[in-house]
Inverse folding.
């Protein structure tokens, strides 16, 4: 048995046992670890000169090789080297750094208004329009860590599914459970928007935002979309509108149908876009059209960039000493080495 495995000792392995929160107060002392390979070499070169040479006419009596006790004596220099290594690390003063962050944010209140009418079951988005919009909205909510977010759903009528809250887990749970046929009737965009405006109007946030997503035109409701937009403007609420309109299907019409059907489709798209563009213009927001799941994801990313929260972070650092265990290990290894040297591996002159 040799010390070859010790020669492969890598100085950086010492650092790998620490996590990112550990620093060394006296880093230069870690350079002493470079002496360890030299010490290993010294023990290796001197191992045959540790005992007096006895001249014998023949070694036949010892042909059986060294005993187990003799082979295990290699543990003594290994224990001493490990003890020295632990002592050097202790002298370098490892310290844990505990960080505390105080966050000051100019909050943005965001209300998601989502269409859950039966047309959201169309499968031109994967797996369908509603599930695609829910998935992207959940990702958006997760990225808005410091904002209050609420959720309203609408079809022929509207209701608040979740009021403004910083508990984004709850918001995402409500988003995950949203489904079509929760509400009856034809699409009422104005009612859905007015419901969200009523919930967000009393907010004290510096910025109030509504994200309205639909795939159809306004077909019912006591409040028209433009009337709801005017109310939002009076309440200083900005509305971003999103139309889920793929290039293949709108409503239940296909581009492969007759020319008259195609023209109806174009007119249908224009009506949807005209209403949503006007809502966003009135309130100072923006209109987006999503033609696929990836495009919808990019829309939410764009809105995320437009409505960034200003955050001031104050970091407080506290240090705690971590060298005590290393001193303990060094002493333990040295004591163990001395005990073994003068008991089990004692050599009688």
């Amino acid at each position: 048995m040799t010390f070859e495995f010790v020669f492969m000792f890598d100085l950086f392995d010492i650092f790998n046992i620490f996590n990112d929160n550990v620093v060394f107060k006296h880093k230069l002392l870690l350079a002493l670890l470079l002496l360890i390979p030299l010490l290993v070499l010294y023990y290796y070169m001197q191992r045959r000169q540790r005992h007096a040479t006895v001249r014998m006419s023949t070694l036949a009596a010892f042909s059986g090789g060294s005993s187990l006790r003799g082979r295990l004596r290699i543990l003594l220099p290994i224990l001493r080297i490990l003890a020295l290594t632990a002592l050097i690390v202790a002298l370098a003063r490892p310290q844990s750094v505990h960080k505390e962050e105080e966050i000051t944010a100019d909050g943005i209140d965001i209300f998601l208004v989502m269409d859950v009418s039966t047309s959201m079951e169309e499968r031109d988005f994967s797996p369908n329009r509603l599930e695609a919009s829910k998935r992207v909205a959940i990702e958006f909510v997760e990225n808005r860590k410091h904002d209050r977010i609420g959720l309203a759903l609408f079809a022929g009528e509207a209701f608040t599914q979740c009021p403004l809250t910083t508990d984004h887990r709850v918001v995402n749970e409500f988003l995950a459970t949203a489904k079509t046929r929760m509400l009856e009737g034809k699409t009422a965009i104005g009612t859905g928007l007015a419901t969200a405006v009523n919930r967000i109007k009393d907010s004290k946030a510096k910025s109030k935002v509504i994200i309205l997503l639909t795939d159809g035109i306004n077909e019912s409701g006591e409040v028209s979309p433009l009337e709801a937009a005017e109310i939002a403007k009076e309440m200083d609420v900005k509305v971003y509108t999103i139309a889920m309109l793929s290039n293949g299907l709108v409503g239940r019409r296909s581009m492969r149908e007759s020319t008259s059907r195609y023209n109806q489709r174009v007119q249908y798209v224009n009506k949807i876009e005209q209403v949503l563009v006007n809502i966003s213009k009135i309130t100072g927001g923006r209109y987006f059209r999503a033609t696929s799941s990836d495009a919808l994801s990019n829309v939410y990313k764009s809105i995320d960039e437009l409505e960034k929260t200003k955050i001031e972070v104050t970091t407080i650092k506290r240090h705690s000493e971590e060298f005590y265990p290393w001193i303990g290990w060094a002493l333990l290894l040295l004591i163990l080495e001395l005990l073994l040297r003068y008991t089990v591996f004692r050599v009688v002159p």
Remarks:
- The domain at 107-309 is CATH 3.40.50.410 (Rossmann fold).
